[in-house]
Recover the amino acids of this structure.
């Protein structure tokens, strides 16, 4: 098993075999809190988190904790910005068949193209055109757009991941400002989750809460 696979293959042992944790790369602390609150309202507390900006341990250490029998089905990660989400994805792109991966990003009102272009440019730096992505829009609602993204390596489909994108951003739709205290923006996220159930339902379905 190569280093990339060893680092990111997050498996939980169960009777008769293994199942993969769902891993979500998100942009920042507000997105991480959104995922935590969404999970608590629908699944309880069976999740793990990793904030790259605050962590005192390495990401590989956290992933290993999931590999050695930690019975947690979801790992939510805050990467510290869209560019960091892209960098982290690039490191595991060739191992996508070993992951149940979701990216949660902001389109900031610009649609898919700027994100797609930035991500592909980073992939091309490392894989020199041998790896490309094919985006298949699956649904949208007033606040989100959803894609199933195929990873094509040397013209062979090597797996897929889900992309959930805020059409604007979480901060835009919940009116969170950087100056807000944590309890203030947590209250705004809770209000959004409570008062926009039909919109949030699509996110829950993609993550797997409605299964």
């Amino acid at each position: 098993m190569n280093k990339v696979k060893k680092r990111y293959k997050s498996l939980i042992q169960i009777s008769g075999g293994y199942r993969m944790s769902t891993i979500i790369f998100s942009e920042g602390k507000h997105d991480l809190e959104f995922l935590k609150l969404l999970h608590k309202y629908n699944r309880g507390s069976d999740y793990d988190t990793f904030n790259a900006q605050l962590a005192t341990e390495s990401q590989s250490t956290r992933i290993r904790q999931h590999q050695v029998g930690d019975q947690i089905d979801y790992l939510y990660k805050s990467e510290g910005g869209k560019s960091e989400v892209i960098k982290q994805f690039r490191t595991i792109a060739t191992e996508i068949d070993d992951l149940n991966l979701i990216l949660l990003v902001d389109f900031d009102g610009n649609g898919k193209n700027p994100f797609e272009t930035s991500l592909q440019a980073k992939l091309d730096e490392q894989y020199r055109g041998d790896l490309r992505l094919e985006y298949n829009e699956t649904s949208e609602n007033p606040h989100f757009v959803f894609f199933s993204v195929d990873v094509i390596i040397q013209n062979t489909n090597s797996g897929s991941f889900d992309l959930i994108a805020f059409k604007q951003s979480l901060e835009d739709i919940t009116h969170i400002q950087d100056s807000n205290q944590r309890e203030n923006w947590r209250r705004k996220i809770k209000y959004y989750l409570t008062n926009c159930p039909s919109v949030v339902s699509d996110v829950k379905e993609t993550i797997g809460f409605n299964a």
Q: What stands out?
A: The chain has one domain: 3-206. Confidence is low (pLDDT under 50) at residues 1-17.
